[in-house]
Amino acid sequence: MDKIVFITGATAGFGEACARKFAANNHNLIITGRRQERLQQLAEELTGTYPVAVLPLVFDVRNREQVLEMIGSIPEQWKRIDVLINNAGLAAGKDDFAQASLDDWDTMVDTNIKGFAYVAQAVSNLMIPHKRGHIINLGSVAAKQVYAQGNMYCATKHAVEALSQAMRIDLLPYHIKVTAIHPGAANTEFSTVRFKGDRIAADKVYEGLIPLVAADVAETIFYCAGLPDHVCINDLVITCTQQADCFYYDRG
Ligand code: NDP
Ligand code: 8X3
Q1: Residue 22: which CATH number?
Q2: Model confidence pLDDT, tens digit, residues 192-218
Q3: Ordered alpha helix ranges (H), the chain
Q4: Taking CB atoms and a 6 Å cutoff, what residues make up the pocket around ligand 1?
Q5: If you placed Cys at 8, which of 51, 88, 128, 152 could pair as Cys (CB 3.0 to 4.6 Å)?
């Protein structure tokens, strides 16, 4: 049976790669993000290439009213969502605790914790009546360890870890699976966003590494989503071979 897969942050990186992977396997998609043009182009490309339907929804996960309104007004035939890939998120800045921008902190908390939770709650309420569904949350190796100047980003990803556990417990009676995926360094738009367009700083993150790419993470998510109904991967850490954890890299 083809699934309905709801992907947040599908305009770039992991979300876009997941959209390509799931569409190539004939699943119908709800794709979301703020950049309408990118979403529209992706929807047209995927529906033109594969026998799938794609519903693009433009909203900012930080805006609670928008999240509730957009998810609340999904057409009836799209409401039976099988998989949520709760992926939209970002790092803003990498600075010492005492100097970090409070605006950056607000952006990360509002996106990675509050927006993340608004979407998960709204979609889980669509899954509950059917007593099935799978929520796949994007954490990070920064959900497991805290590194220098990672302060609020690491805190938000630790919150993703905590909320994934919380969802797994509270959604247990409804047989909704919850998987937390924790990638290490992956070369997407992530670092360019983090360093506010400074490509030199962004490229330095991946110097000497063959880092993960978005398709690696999408393959892993696709694998987790394809397991039998009675099997749930709860927690999965994925790094490139040259990264052991947040601290140890072999940069050649
Ligand atoms: P990208 O920057 O490539 O993509 C991020 C996506 O999130 C974009 O589609 C963006 O869409 C969306 N997004 C960001 N803010 C909002 C918002 N307020 N409302 C709606 N959508 C938003 O990053 P990645 O694909 O690398 O990251 C995806 C997730 O994986 C994030 O949660 C990140 O923290 C996590 N992660 C990334 C790692 C990496 O090294 N790349 C490693 C570990 C975890 P738009 O701008 O159009 O709104
Ligand atoms: C992104 C990976 O190591 O920059 O979550 O925090 S890291």
Answers
A1: 3.40.50.720
A2: 999 999 999 999 999 999 999 999 999
A3: 13-24, 36-49, 64-72, 102-108, 116-127, 151-170, 190-194, 199-204, 214-225
A4: 9-15, 33-35, 60-62, 87-90, 111, 115, 138, 140, 183, 185-186, 188-190, 193
A5: 88
Residues 69-119 pLDDT 10s? 999 999 999 999 999 999 999 999 999 999 999 999 999 999 999 999 999
- CB contact at 8 A, 47 and 97: no
Task: Tell me, yes or no, whether 252 lies in a domain.
Answer: no
The tally of domains found in the chain comes to 1
Residue 222, domain member (yes or no): yes
Ligand 2 centroid–CA 156 distance in Å is 12
Residues with CB under 6 A from ligand 2: 140-142, 150, 184-185, 246
- Please check whether residue 146 lies inside any domain of the structure: yes
Q: Vertex 218, ends 29 and 241: CA angle to 5°?
A: 175
Among all chains, which residue has been given the structure tokens 């694998």? 223
Residue bearing the CA closest to ligand 1, atom 36: 140
Return the residue whose CA atom lies nearest to atom 13 of ligand 1.
88
Residues of the chain with pLDDT > 70, as a percent, come to 100
Give residue 9 CA to ligand 1 midpoint distance, Å. Answer: 6
Flag whether 136 is in a domain. yes
Active-site residue set: 153
- The Cα 59–Cα 14 span in angstroms is 18
Q: Residue 227 sits in which domain range? A: 4-238
